[in-house]
């Protein structure tokens, strides 16, 4: 989310994604090698790098940044964070030890092979923080972040703006602008107006009905790339009647996904049938999507014991995201479609932080949510979103056979074998119907013509520091 966007400008990880692709390249680690069995990873660190507070980046900083997440006995494990990503990725079941071989060499030994490991190391939860700053600020560190990245933290006016200034000594080179300001502007129309006035230079998440205005404005450029994401409606297995497969099937057949994409994505989406898009290797195109068929939906409800339908809650995201560019309108259409087959869906929403907290706690019957890839691997969708222990599994879906397949796929470096396993996994998920897969959307951003040197990447904003403003 937005926290990743900001953190990528303040911090660095050992590796990062390339500016114009989803391939990994060196960052704070200049090079690395792995043992033949894939269990031992040795990282050779960049020398002469300083944190923004003037302290040295070295192997001890790497150990501090990782061990405080995974080691419950670490002095700073309970300071300021809950380590959601570390836990949801199952890192304590994967990483056996992290050692400083010397001041600029780190060795990580895995308990078992983990094929996506190097890609995982590029995502923001694996950024390296200043141990000195964490020890100084403790619980307040998130309000005083210190990394090695291209920009230094200046100020944070909550719900308004975050101000950063250029790190003139950045190891990657001098940033293209002196100050980087992230503003919070909830309304898309207001964001667009601010962009047109020149008060901001880049905006995310334009409303689809604004695309015509944007494309016709000679002072603006619409950047588009194929998005690696999924927008879905999760059905809560722990709440009746969604423990009944026929009910979940009925919901899938009741929702007119093509109409939603045609009318509400305005050319920025395609209908989804699987939990990840076809750009990700391992995609199973043989799966046949659930057709829009209200008559069949009614029949399935009757067979499930609900001939007159039922009432349920539909939780609607409060904020637009690429996979749900207009969540309010999408929720209303889903509600209307469900009404036609006898399901009375009451729409509920919350402020974004509260929304995530409550759907992860299982407060909902049905809930809209989505996922943007952290790294391009089926594991980042299937294990992250469907493992029973993941806080991101908001369908509360449990299938032990699926879990074994996903863990087996993590353990092998045989690419063909992994493809076969992920296709099996998709078939199981399709059969069990935990979601309505709604759409995959393009990743878009609107920039002022004065912005030069920025390339939109579908999974990272890391290279925002390269952008310049042409006077």
Largest sheet: 6 strands, mixed
Mean pLDDT: 95
Largest beta sheet: what is the strand line-up? 13-17-12-16-14-15
**Structural class by sheet pairing and helices:** alpha+beta
Helix content: 25-40%
Account of the protein in words:
The chain is of the alpha+beta class and 471 residues long. The chain has 2 domains: 178 residues, D-Maltodextrin-Binding Protein, domain 2 (3-Layer(aba) Sandwich); 213 residues, Dipeptide-binding Protein, domain 3, CATH 3.10.105.10. It is 31% helix and 22% strand. It contains 16 helices and 20 strands. The protein has a 6-stranded mixed sheet. It has a 4-stranded antiparallel sheet with strand order 3-4-6-5. A 3-stranded antiparallel sheet has the order 7-8-9, with helices on one face. A hairpin with a 6-residue loop joins strand 1 and strand 2. Helix 9 packs antiparallel against helix 11, helix 14 runs antiparallel to helix 15 and helix 15 packs antiparallel against helix 16. The mean pLDDT is 95.
List keywords for this structure.
single chain, 471 residues, alpha+beta, D-Maltodextrin-Binding Protein, domain 2, Dipeptide-binding Protein, domain 3, 2 domains, 6-stranded mixed β-sheet, 4-stranded antiparallel β-sheet, 20 strands, 31% helix, globular
What is the strand and helix layout of this fold?
Blueprint (H helix, E strand, L loop, with lengths): L1 H9 L4 E3 L6 E3 L2 E6 L5 E6 L13 H12 L13 H5 L2 H4 E8 L2 E6 L6 H4 L10 H7 L13 E7 L3 E6 L12 E5 L4 H10 L4 E3 L6 H5 L4 E6 L3 E7 L9 H10 L2 H8 L4 E3 L22 H10 L6 E6 L11 H14 L2 E6 L3 H10 L4 E7 L5 H9 L13 H12 L3 H18 L2 E7 L1 E6 L2 E2 L15 E2 L2
Parallel strand pairs: 14-15, 14-16
Antiparallel strand pairs: 1-2, 3-4, 4-6, 5-6, 7-8, 8-9, 10-18, 11-18, 12-16, 12-17, 13-17, 19-20
Helix pairs in contact: 9-11, 14-15, 15-16
């Amino acid at each position: 989310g937005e926290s990743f966007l900001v953190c990528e400008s303040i911090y660095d990880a050992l590796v990062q994604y390339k500016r114009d692709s989803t391939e990994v390249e060196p960052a704070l680690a200049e090079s690395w090698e792995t043992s033949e069995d894939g269990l031992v990873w040795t990282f050779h660190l960049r020398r002469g790098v300083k944190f923004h507070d003037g302290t040295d980046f070295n192997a001890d900083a790497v150990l501090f940044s990782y061990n405080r997440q995974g080691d419950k006995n670490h002095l700073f494990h309970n300071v300021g964070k809950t380590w959601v990503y570390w836990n949801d990725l199952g890192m304590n079941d994967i990483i056996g030890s992290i050692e400083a071989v010397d001041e600029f060499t780190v060795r990580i030994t895995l308990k078992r092979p983990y094929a996506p490991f190097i890609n995982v190391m590029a995502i923001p939860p694996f950024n390296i923080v200043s141990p000195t700053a964490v020890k100084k600020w403790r619980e307040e560190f998130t309000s005083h972040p210190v990394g090695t990245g291209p920009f230094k933290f200046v100020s944070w006016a909550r719900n308004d703006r975050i101000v950063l200034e250029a790190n003139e000594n950045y190891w990657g080179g001098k940033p293209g602008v002196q100050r980087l300001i992230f503003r919070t502007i909830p309304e898309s129309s207001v964001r667009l107006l601010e962009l047109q006035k020149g008060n901001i230079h880049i905006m995310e998440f334009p409303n689809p009905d604004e695309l015509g205005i944007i494309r016709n404005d000679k002072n603006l450029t619409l950047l588009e790339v194929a998005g690696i994401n999924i927008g879905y409606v999760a059905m809560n297995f722990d709440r009746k009647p969604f423990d009944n497969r026929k009910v979940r099937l009925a919901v899938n057949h009741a929702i007119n996904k093509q109409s939603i994409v045609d009318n509400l994505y305005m050319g920025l989406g395609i209908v989804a049938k699987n939990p990840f898009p076809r750009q990700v290797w391992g995609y199973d195109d043989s799966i046949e999507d659930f057709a829009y068929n209200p008559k069949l939906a009614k029949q399935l409800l009757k067979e499930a014991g609900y001939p007159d339908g039922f009432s349920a809650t539909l939780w609607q995201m409060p904020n637009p995201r690429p996979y749900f560019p207009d969540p309010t309108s999408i929720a209303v259409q889903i509600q209307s479609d469900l009404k036609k087959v006898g399901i009375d869906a009451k729409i509920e929403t919350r402020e974004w932080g509260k929304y995530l907290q409550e759907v992860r706690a299982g407060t909902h019957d049905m809930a809209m949510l989505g996922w943007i890839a952290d790294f391009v691997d089926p594991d980042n969708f299937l294990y992250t979103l469907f493992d029973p222990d993941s806080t991101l599994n908001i369908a509360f879906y449990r299938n032990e056979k699926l879990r074994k397949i996903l863990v087996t796929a993590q353990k092998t470096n045989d690419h063909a074998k992994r493809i076969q396993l992920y296709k099996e996994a998709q078939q199981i998920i399709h059969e069990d119907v935990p979601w309505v897969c709604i759409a995959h959307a393009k990743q878009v951003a609107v920039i002022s013509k004065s912005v030069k040197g920025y390339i939109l990447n579908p999974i990272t904003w890391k290279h925002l520091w390269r952008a310049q403003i042409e006077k």
